[in-house]
Request: fold
Amino acid sequence: MQHGLTKGRVSTTLLKLALPIMATSFLQMAYNLIDMFWIGHLGSSSVAAVGTAGFFIWFSFAIIILSKIGAEVLVAQYLGAGNHEKAEQVAGNAVKIAVINGAIFGVLLIIFRSSLVRFFQLGDLQVETNAIVYLKVMAVCMPFTFLPPIFTGIMNGSGNSRTPFLINTLGLVANMILDPLMIFGVGNFAGMGVLGAAIATVTAQALVVICFLIVFARRGSFLSPFFYFGRFDRKIAEDILRLGFPVSVQSGVFTLIAMILARVIAQWGPTAIAVQKVGSQIESISWMTASGFQVAVSAFTGQNAGAMEIGRVKEGVRSALSMMFGLGILATVLLFFFAEPIFSVFLSESEALSLGIDYLKILAFSQVFMSLEITTAGAFNGLGKTMPPAIIGIGGNALRIPLALLLIPSLGLNGIWWAICISSIMKGLIMVGWYGKNESTMTQSILERFSPKIAE
Reply:
C-alpha cells in the first residue's frame, strides 16, 4: 500500500490519487443506477418501494462514517508522520467499530422495519410490502454494507486508491450480472422482483468484503495480515469517533431531512417518489464524483499535514477546487440541456418523465456550488477540523424544510426541488468562504498540535 503523498508535483499526485477514488464513487453510483434501471422495468411502484427502503440504507452511511472518516484522517496523518504502528492500530479499531455498529443497526431495522416504512404514509399496500421485504434483506446483511467503505477508507488514507477501485469494480460486475437474473429470472428460475434486487445487492457486497480480506491477508506495507484481530484500544477508538462524530451527525440529519421531504413528496403519489429517487441518482454524477475527490483531498491533506508540508496542503486544496469547479460546470450543462434523454433511460412514463425533467433542470443550477462544498469539506477533514463542515451542512440542509413549505404553494412539487437547489448554493458559498478565512489558523494549529501528537 502506497503512502507517498508528501512528494512529487502536487496536482499530479492529487489527481493520481483522486481518479481511482472518483471512479470508485462512480461505481457506487452505477450500483444504484443499475438497480434503478432494472427495477424501473417493473414500474414506478417498484422503484418507489426500493426508494423508500433506500432511505434507511442511506441512513446507515451516517453510522459508517463514524469510523470511516476517523480511519481515513488518522491513517493518513500517522503515515505522514512515519508512525506505521499507530496507523495499523487505527485501521484495526475502525473495523471493529464498523462491525459492531453494523450488527446493531441491522437488528434495529429488522425489529422496526414495518413502522419505519409506514412513516412515509405511501397509501399503497403493495409498495409498502415490497419496501419492507427489501429492507429486511438489506438489514440481515448490514455488516457487509458497513465493511467495504471502511476497508476502502483505510486504503485511501494510506494513499492506495487503486486496489479499492479494482475490488469495487468486481462487485459492480457481479451486481450487473445478478440484477436481471434475480429480478426477472432465467429459464426455469423464476424472478423475484424487488426481493431479487436486494439479494443481488447483498451478494455483490459480500463478494467485495471477501476480496478485501484476501488482499489484506496477502499483502500490505503498514498493515500486518489479519490486522483487524488486534487489540481493541479505547483511546484510539475515541480518537476515531471524535473525528467521525460531527460528519456522522451531519449525514444522519441530511438523511432525516430527506425522509421528511420524501413524506411531503408522497402527497403527489408513488410516481413523484420514484422521480425523486431516480433524479437523485442521476444527479449523483457530480455528487458522488465530488465525494470521491473529497476523500482524496482529505488523504492528501492529512498526510502532508502529518509531515508538516503546509505549503503542499494549501496548493493541493487550491488545485482540487479548480478541478471541481470544472466538474460542476460540466454537470450543469448535462443536467439542464440533456434532461429528457437522460431521465427517459430510467422512467419513460409520461407523467414521471415530465416531473423528472423539471427535477434535473432545477438541480442543475446547484452543481458547481455542491461540488465546491463537498471538496472543501475534504480539506477541513484532512486537517482534523470536521466540525465546521458539519455545522454548515446541518444548517443548510435544515433550511430545506421551511424553504420547501414556503415555495410549495406557488410552485407545487417544483418548490421542493428549488428548496434543495437554493440550500446547496448557500452551503457551497459559505463552506469555501469559511475555509478561505480560516486556512492560515488551521494550518498553524497543525504545526502546534497534530504533528507532535502523531509523532508520540
Q: What stands out?
A: Residues 10-454 form one domain.
